């Protein structure tokens, strides 16, 4: 048991160390910290402005009106992040957020119209809505394995948790000693910092054609189809929408509970949201221990449940200490969702449409937050604050319980995908591929089995498949003589695909052979789409041809370009 605990702690520590050592991940993660610190501070400040202007109903309406344009535009604009380098989208939206938030600060400072602040809030929120899809689609490109992606999402979850703590806490402190416009100003500075961090990001992006691009609307539809065609994605996005509805309600509850139920005043709204941040930091540390658990679907369900149950219990135990402790559990749930939800989506969505899938998620999240804020205001007016907390708080736990077994099946399917990815990464020319590319290959594998003595292909055949051995052995025959032996994890058949030639040798099973294969188009697109993989493949071909055909007669040994 002790060794198991130590192993988990080592795994959790490695999750943070791997991100700290990778300059690209480090810059991307710190940029996220700046962006989401700005978002939480901005949300608290805007809530205070709306409440002072028109009470709880105005607070809810502003939340909805702020979110609706973002919900409509997120899936339409997110294809931009699939067209080129995703960090450029992040830089643009961070600058846009910073400018809009700074103008809101100036408007409040000079007693300008509140309506203008609301308009600027909409602009800032539209930009914020585009940040997470682009960032979520960027992370898998910076990773090599599912474990590394889960680690990156743990670290981002931790930074999200810190932002959830620091943003509201900073707002609470500033509201206690200064005016609300100062909070807007600090949020603007955090957005500009997020943009600056990304200017030095360097990574190997896949080639994306610039000609004959479809219209944005058509690309948006492709993202929607990708979600609709995958039951796992549909389930995760549906539960994320339920969690976001509760989150929207919490933006109203935090202000009304602080002022009307607990008597904490305006700074109390920031304190309650800071309690969520404290729990989120603790939850992120716990989530780091779950990176290799293989049970992300189960933990996702638990995280969704924790987003609602504590809120319901505040309605039962309306005391200051109880509210702070219970909201900390909401933060723990948020950390579990960050790890499990974003990792699962990153594993299930194809890289070509990944930003669009995250755009659909962001649209659902945004509109659900807006609906949740209005719903909370209406239910408070209808049945009172305690019953509003209870009724809305029970939505997530009920849905999480109903989805439990489907999420466990999803865990098993991701486990099978991991096994295929691990097999492909044993092939040296495929090992440099980023995680989305190699997962795309894994999804296209086709298994076959041959008895001892059967021929996989013959010298002179047309090359149409690339093979990797799962189990068993085979030998390579050039002009009838044995030139190599192949075993589990070896790949072969690439020269005919990369050089567009016929098979230069025969491959025959020497014992029962379990193979998996890739089509020529799928293989070539992946290998030739990333510079490191292309360079490794070309070098391997040259090395093997030189090794087995020193006299230049390639006919005997081309097939020995298998990767071992």
The whole-angstrom Rg is: 27 Å
Number of domain units: 2
CATH architecture of the largest domain: Up-down Bundle
Structural class computed from helices and strand pairing:
alpha+beta
**Proportion of helical residues:** over 70%
Largest β-sheet summary: 4 strands, antiparallel
For the record, what is the CATH homologous superfamily label of the largest domain? MFS general substrate transporter like domains
**What is the average of the pLDDT values?**
81
Strand order of the largest sheet: 1-8-3-6
The SSE string, one letter per element, is HHHHHHHHHHHHHHHHHEEEEEEHEEHH
Number of strands: 8
Shape descriptor reads elongated
Distance from first to last alpha carbon: 37 Å
Question: Helices, strands, pairings?
Answer:
Elements: H1 2-21, H2 23-77, H3 80-83, H4 86-109, H5 114-141, H6 146-177, H7 180-197, H8 216-228, H9 231-261, H10 266-287, H11 296-316, H12 320-348, H13 354-383, H14 385-393, H15 395-402, H16 404-425, H17 435-443, E1 446-450, E2 455-457, E3 465-471, E4 474-478, E5 481-486, E6 491-492, H18 494-498, E7 506-509, E8 513-519, H19 520-528, H20 531-548
Antiparallel strand pairs: 1-8, 2-7, 3-6, 3-8, 4-5, 4-7
């Amino acid at each position: 048991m002790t060794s198991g605990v130590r192993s988990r702690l080592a795994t959790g520590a490695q999750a943070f160390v791997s991100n700290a050592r990778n300059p690209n991940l480090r810059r991307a993660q710190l940029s996220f910290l700046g962006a989401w610190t700005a978002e939480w501070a901005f949300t608290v400040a805007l809530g205070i402005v709306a409440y002072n202007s028109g009470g709880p109903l105005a607070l809810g309406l502003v939340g909805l009106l702020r979110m609706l344009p973002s919900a409509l535009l997120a899936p339409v604009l997110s294809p931009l992040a699939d067209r080129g380098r995703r960090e450029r989208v992040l830089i643009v939206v961070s600058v846009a957020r910073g400018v809009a938030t700074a103008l809101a600060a100036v408007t409040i400072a000079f007693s300008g119209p509140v309506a203008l602040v609301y308009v600027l809030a909409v602009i800032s929120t539209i930009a914020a809505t585009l940040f997470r899809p682009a960032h979520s689609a960027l992370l898998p490109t910076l990773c090599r394995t599912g474990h590394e992606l889960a680690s990156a999402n743990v670290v981002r979850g931790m930074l999200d948790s810190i932002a959830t703590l620091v943003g509201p806490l900073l707002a609470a402190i500033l509201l206690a000693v200064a005016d609300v416009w100062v909070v807007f100003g600090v949020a603007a500075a955090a957005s500009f910092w997020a943009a600056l961090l990304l200017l030095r990001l360097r990574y190997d992006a896949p080639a994306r054609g610039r000609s004959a691009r479809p219209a944005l609307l058509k690309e948006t539809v492709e993202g929607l189809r990708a979600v609709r065609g995958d039951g796992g994605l549909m389930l995760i996005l549906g539960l994320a929408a339920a969690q976001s509805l509760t989150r929207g309600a919490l933006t109203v509850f935090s202000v009304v509970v602080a002022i009307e139920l607990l008597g904490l005043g305006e700074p109390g709204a920031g304190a309650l949201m800071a309690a969520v941040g404290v729990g989120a930091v603790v939850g992120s540390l716990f989530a780091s221990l779950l990176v290799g658990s293989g049970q992300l679907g189960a933990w996702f369900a638990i995280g969704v449940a924790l987003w609602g149950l504590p809120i319901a219990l505040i309605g039962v135990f309306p005391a200051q200490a109880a509210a702070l402790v219970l909201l900390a559990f909401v933060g723990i749930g948020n950390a579990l969702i960050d790890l499990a939800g974003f990792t699962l989506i990153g594993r299930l969505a194809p890289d070509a449409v990944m930003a669009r899938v995250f755009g659909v998620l962001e649209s659902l999240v945004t509109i659900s937050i807006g609906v949740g804020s209005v719903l909370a205001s209406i239910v408070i007016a209808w049945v009172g604050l305690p019953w509003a907390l209870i009724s809305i708080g029970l939505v997530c736990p009920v849905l999480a319980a109903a989805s439990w077994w489907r999420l466990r099946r999803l865990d098993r399917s991701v486990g099978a995908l991991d096994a295929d990815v691990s097999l492909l990464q044993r092939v040296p020319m495929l090992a440099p591929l980023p995680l989305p590319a190699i997962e795309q290959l894994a999804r296209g594998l086709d298994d076959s089995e041959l008895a001892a003595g059967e021929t996989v292909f013959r010298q002179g055949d047309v090359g149409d498949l690339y093979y990797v051995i799962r189990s068993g052995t085979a030998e390579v025959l050039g002009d009838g003589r044995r030139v190599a032996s192949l075993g589990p994890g070896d790949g072969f058949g690439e020269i005919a695909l990369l050089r567009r030639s016929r098979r230069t040798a025969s491959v025959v099973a020497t014992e029962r052979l379990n193979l998996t294969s890739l089509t020529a188009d799928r293989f070539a697109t992946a290998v030739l789409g990333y510079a490191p993989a292309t360079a490794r493949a070309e070098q391997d071909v040259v090395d093997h041809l030189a090794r087995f055909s020193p006299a230049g007669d390639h006919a005997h040994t081309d097939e020995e370009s298998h990767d071992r």
